[in-house]
Specification:
heterotrimer, A mainly alpha (334), B alpha/beta (390), C mainly alpha (287), A: 334 residues, mainly alpha, C: 287 residues, ABC transporter involved in vitamin B12 uptake, BtuC, 72% helix
């Protein structure tokens, strides 16, 4: 984990460049969103799903990329957010999409606190296993509490109201898509500010040299726990978006598979950079959708080949390697 | 990045070319992943039907579009359902192996004006979520209720039930208990075990200690059933005379070669056995074997898919190829025909299939393969689950 | 009392089967420091080969076991040469990505070549059936697995702790540069260690097939179990892995007997508790 992408450090530390980069980032997301809308007006359900997963992968990047905590259980936070939003609507009849989103944020943050507290008890491989144990416990808990969660049949009956009383969450998914893009933009901008803040620098310091951070008088565990809570909030937002747009929540949101896929997407894009997380999600999900539609029976081999190719030819992830390449070129030409 | 967008555009352009008289049917199922075999059976059933009946209805050509949901994943299922309706413009949705996947899609049927034909998902409650759903498979209640009668008549008075801890398992437990208590027996213990259980020895010890003279078991078809049946034999339960009863999921034909002699004599109740003796089934098995490539892989989802296609063809005939979901569903209410599994009909009230449930015993056939041999028929069984669930 | 005894035997048998299947992973993860998520894929390849040899060719169980181990190693050689060699010493997450990629490919290929049905490996005559222990019966195969586990554990322990090869392995792991400066050909050592790990995976896949049947999704379905067992034991430690298997086997078996409906809870709570108490695993060495 020590050599994960530090292109942000290379390029973004200087304050004058960072604001510009924020604006560029926002512009890139908006343009990509508009292109997606125009090119695939019939595929908005998929695009909205990508947005929700992107939030999960961003959340994972906060703890894995920035703090160096390896986890195969991050979907626990995503699922907690999804169930919080879903239960609010299905059991309490509170269908306002903004309140549901808020519930997702709170649910995700709360489970982030819990997971963070446990995850900090170990490092390296045992930590990875702790995360696996946690995700299975969450999954089993949701399965057991079937009167609340619908168990393995899934939680149905989620019916979000129209946004501002005007835009319905319908079959064509325009509302959900725009809602998701707005959510992602807000989260992205907040996270850009967060990772540049002293707190963000501190957490990056923890990944690189925990001892020195402690010598500076900061407590690594409290930083990590706070980061876990923030990460939980972001993942919870993703879960809430998923619940609102698909109007159903099931155990797979809390599954090991979902967690592992998120990690794969993050590493594919490049850890330790928000753009890497977004790139990885976009490429993985589009690739998966394309090959699984082209050959629903044997597409897994293609995905496997993609992952191997990325490790062989872009060891820092797709975005990380590309960013390094351009940084080098820029250095060569003063 | 750019290449991917280009590729995606190309894909969108290719699939977007629709002809006026092509009727598209979107099939969602597990075509890869741990349940790939069941998805393969969907495709075999569909291919078999189209091989026998052709792909034309009048001037209209039927085209199938497959979409993969490897494991129960309602969000994915819903996204694919939306995509099939909005982008591919399918007139019918079909398939659905898992209940939550079907449940996720039913809310969009009305707005999409598309009927759904369920080819497997076996929870009773799905039918209540939309009037545009028709089911040609079975429910766990439907297949698990008759075995209670069989167990009681075999002289077993005290039973223990052992099921996997998820929706269908709990359905099976309730169905069996209801049936067995009604017959006059007693279920002394009900055990639910996690889906991921691999080692069943401790469960067998529990069964032994419970003092029951028979065990009712439900596990999803696939690798775990093998471990369960082997543990039943190896831990001496069979030798001790504890009788074994289950719905047919446990002895699906594609698992039988792996179970081998361990399965001999096990009695199960189910709606379809590949060995069913009728001319319709002979034709079906021949066509489906050709489609799937290996007869040993043929199993019950294929017949659900085959009959599902029959229902869809009738719907297309009734609507003349026009998109009219209500008319299509109304047209098949009360429809009856002879399926490879025997005489069946669509119950006009629940839109679920009414069919014979057979008691079968695993035996070795003359050619050395293992088959489910039908030994008793429970005629015209509806779905008792719908009444039981609220 | 009889029940307690009976549970203890089940726990022992289950734990030893877990050990046989997972120990190869302990070699790759502990000695070679590769997070090898494709361990299950190699075990599955072994299982398929054994099934083909014993069932389709009818060559008997012992031939099948040997063929599985040898052929799996042969299949693994190019994979090691072209793929694994690129990720020795790479960050863990890169290794995860690569080995998951390999696993996906193997699953896809197995599904295509062998079909999605379960494959069994017919046992040799003496291993079939059940043995009567007086108060209960247990399948002979389980007893065979226990013996296999003990033999593997002793053999590995001896190879690593008592032979010159073992010394070289430990030296290469602790400081590859220094070891090669001293004349140890680390590349060869790594290749041999990898072959041993793969061979053990294949052996475990065959011996454990009665409990974990061979099918295409095997490689992912049991990956978590392998990973948990090895990490709880402390990667690279043979006694640690053995202790972890027996302990987790006991917890799992007892939990499943007492409260089957909460079986998963018991198992994973125990894992969390053990790791909180032993953050490096039961026998983890300080880095």
């Amino acid at each position: 984990m020590t050599s994960s992408v530090n292109s942000d450090i290379l390029l973004g530390v200087k304050a004058r460049g960072s604001l510009v980069r924020d604006l560029i980032g926002i512009a890139v997301i908006v343009v990509a969103a508009v292109i997606g809308y125009l090119l695939f007006p019939d595929n908005l359900a998929l695009l909205t799903r990508i947005l929700a997963i992107a939030l999960l992968v961003l959340a994972l990047d906060l703890v894995t990329g920035y703090c160096g905590v390896a986890t195969l259980g991050h979907a626990a936070l995503f699922g907690a957010g999804a169930y919080a939003a879903g239960i609010l609507s299905a059991h309490y009849g509170i269908n306002d999409p903004f309140l549901m989103t808020l519930a997702g944020l709170v649910g995700g943050a709360a489970s982030g606190l819990l997971c963070g507290a446990i995850m900090l008890r170990a490092h390296g491989l045992p930590q990875l296993v702790l995360s696996i144990a946690l995700i299975h416990l969450f999954h089993e808990l949701a399965n057991k509490m079937s009167s609340w969660t619908g168990g393995s049949d899934g939680l149905a009956g989620i019916a979000p109201d129209p946004v501002f009383g005007m835009f319905e969450f319908d079959l064509y998914g325009q509302t959900a898509y725009v809602f998701g893009v707005a959510l992602l933009l807000i989260v992205f901008l907040s996270l850009r500010i967060l990772v540049r803040s002293p707190f963000g620098m501190l957490s990056r310091g923890i990944r690189q040299d925990k001892l020195r951070v402690r010598a500076m008088g900061a407590s690594p565990s409290s930083v990590l726990i706070r980061m876990y809570v923030i990460s939980g909030a972001v993942a919870g937002l993703g879960g809430a978006l998923n619940a609102i747009s698909t109007q159903v929540v099931a155990l797979d949101t809390l599954s090991f598979t979902q967690s592992a896929e998120a990690l794969v997407m993050l590493v594919l894009g490049g850890t330790g950079s928000l753009f890497g997380a977004l790139t990885g999600t976009l490429i993985f999900m589009l690739f998966e959708d394309y090959v699984s539609a082209a050959n629903p029976f044997h597409w897994l081999t293609m995905v496997g080949a993609l992952l191997i190719a990325v490790v062989l030819f872009a060891p820092k992830g797709i975005y990380g390697t590309a960013a390094d390449y351009f940084a080098l070129r820029r250095k060569a030409k003063p | 990045m750019r290449k991917i967008i280009l590729a995606a555009i190309a894909a969108a352009a290719l699939s977007g070319t629709a002809y006026a008289d092509v009727i598209k049917v979107g099939v969602v199922g597990p075509f890869s992943g741990p349940f790939a075999l069941q998805g393969k059976n969907f495709k075999a059933g569909i291919d078999a039907y189209m091989a026998i009946n052709g792909n034309k209805i009048g001037d209209d050509t039927v085209e199938i579009i497959y979409r993969d949901v490897p494991q129960a994943d309602p969000a994915q299922s819903k996204a694919l359902g939306q995509e099939l309706v909005v982008k591919e413009k399918v007139q019918y949705l079909a398939g659905f192996y898992f209940t939550p996947d079907a449940m996720a899609v039913t809310p969009i049927l009305k707005q999409a004006k598309v009927p759904m034909v369920i080819m497997n998902a076996a929870t009773s409650a799905i039918m209540k979520t939309s009037p545009l759903v028709v089911r040609t498979s079975f429910t766990t209640w439907q297949t698990s209720t008759p075995i209670a009668t069989v167990a009681f008549e075999a002289g077993v008075k005290k039973m223990i039930s052992v099921v996997s801890d998820y929706g269908p398992g709990i359905d099976a437990e309730n169905a069996f208990k209801a049936g067995f208590v009604k017959a006059g027996g007693e279920v002394v213990q009900s055990i639910r075990m996690p889906l991921t259980t691999n080692d069943f020895s401790p469960i067998m010890q529990r069964i032994k200690d419970s003092g029951a003279d028979g065990v009712f078991a439900f596990l999803p078809s696939g690798p775990t059933t093998l471990g369960f049946v082997k543990a039943y034999n190896d831990n001496g339960l069979k030798a001790a005379g504890v009788k074994f009863f289950a719905p047919g999921d446990l002895t699906q034909e594609s698992d039988l070669p792996a179970l081998g002699d361990a399965a001999l004599g096990i009695q199960t109740t189910f709606h379809y056995a590949v060995s069913h003796d009728s001319p319709e089934n002979k034709a079906f098995v021949e066509a489906a074997t050709k489609a799937i490539g290996n007869k040993a892989e043929l199993s019950f989802p294929a017949v659900g898919a085959f009959d599902g296609m029959h229902v869809i063809y009738k719907m297309i005939e009734a609507t003349g190829g026009k998109q009219d979901a209500e008319k299509a569903v109304d047209a098949v209410k009360g429809l009856s025909w002879t399926s490879p599994r025997g005489p069946v009909s669509i119950d006009p009230e629940s839109r679920h299939i009414t069919q014979n449930i057979y008691l079968r015993e695993v035996v070795k056939a003359d050619d050395g393969t293992y088959i489910n041999k039908e030994i008793r028929t429970f005629e015209k069984q509806g779905d008792p689950g719908l009444a039981a669930v609220r | 009392m009889q029940t307690v005894f009976s549970i203890a035997i089940d726990a022992l048998a289950y734990g030893m089967v877990l050990f046989v299947i997972s120990i190869g992973l302990s070699v790759t993860m502990g000695l070679m420091r590769v997070v090898n998520l494709a361990h299950g894929a190699f075990a599955m390849i072994g299982g398929y080969i054994a099934s083909y040899v014993a069932r389709d060719l009818g060559l008997g169980y012992s031939v099948a076991v040997i063929a599985a181990v040898v052929l799996t190693i042969i299949i693994a050689i190019p994979i090691e040469r072209f793929l694994y060699r690129r990720i020795y010493g790479a960050p863990e997450l890169t290794q995860v990505l690569m080995t998951i990629g390999i696993t996906f490919c193997v699953i896809g290929i197995a599904n295509y070549v062998m079909g999605p049905t379960l494959k069994t490996i017919p046992l040799a005559g003496p291993l079939q059936g059940a043995a009567n222990l007086g108060f209960r019966s247990i399948s002979v195969h389980r007893l065979f697995a226990i013996v296999c586990g003990l033999v593997v554990a002793l053999g590995l322990w001896f190879a690593i702790e008592r032979t010159s090869f073992g010394v070289k392995v430990r030296a290469s792991v602790d400081d590859a540069a220094m070891a090669s400066a001293l004349g140890v050909r680390t590349e060869v050592i790594y290749a041999i260690s990898f072959a041993i790990a793969v061979g053990l995976a294949a052996f475990g896949g065959v011996v454990g097939a009665e409990l974990l049947p061979v099918e295409p999704y095997y490689a992912l379905r049991y990956m978590v179990t392998f990973l948990v067992v090895v990490s709880v034991g402390g990667a690279g430690s043979i006694p640690g892995a053995l202790a972890a298997c027996l302990l987790l086997g006991a917890i799992d078996t007892t939990g499943r007997y007492l409260m089957p409906e909460f079986g998963e809870f018991f198992f994973y709570l125990a894992v969390i508790a053990i790791i909180c108490v032993f953050p490096r695993g039961l026998a983890g060495r300080a880095k």
